[in-house]
Amino acid sequence: MANTTESPCNQAVNRTPKACGFWFPPPALVAPPTGFFQIPGALDAVRIPVLAWVGSEDSITPPAQTEWLAHTMRDWQAVDVRVTHGAGHFSFMDQPPPQTTEPLADKHAFLREHSSEVCKFVVG
Predict the structure, then answer these.
(1) What are the distances in angstroms from CA 66 to CA 18, 27, 53, 113?
(2) Which of 60, 77, 107, 118 is 20 to 30 A from 97 (CA-CA)?
(3) pLDDT in tens, the chain (124 residues)
């Protein structure tokens, strides 16, 4: 029996195939190098909701790549594009690599918002 005080995200994460009959975890792709998807037809079979979130200051996976992804898929799949002003590539990580500088003034607030919004997208 599910804990009624548990968040919908935790309920989804804690499901097991035995408890639900079947359950497939929601797919997640974080900071993809979209060059892999530029081969003709590489995205044709994608028929699930897509959330593409990028930082405006990301020089590794820049916003232009996210815009390309949304533009490429526009004829058959809507892509929810979100750009966080001031965020960099590693702003989305709890523990960024050493020798990186965080551009966001309040990274913890951003991570809380980001986690909540991704959860809402996945769980509904």
Answers:
(1) 37, 17, 8, 20
(2) 118
(3) 445 555 555 554 444 343 444 444 455 555 566 777 788 888 888 888 888 889 999 998 899 988 888 888 888 888 888 999 999 999 988 888 999 999 999 999 999 998 888 888 888 7
Cβ atoms of 52 and 66 closer than 8 Å? yes
Question: Is 16 part of any domain?
Answer: no
Handedness of CA 111, 114, 120, 121 (dihedral sign): negative
Whole-prediction pTM: 0.71
CA distance linking residue 79 with residue 68, whole number of Å: 11
Range of the domain at 47: 26-123
Residue 12 in domain: no
How many structural domains compose the chain?
Answer: 1
Tokens of 78: 């809507």
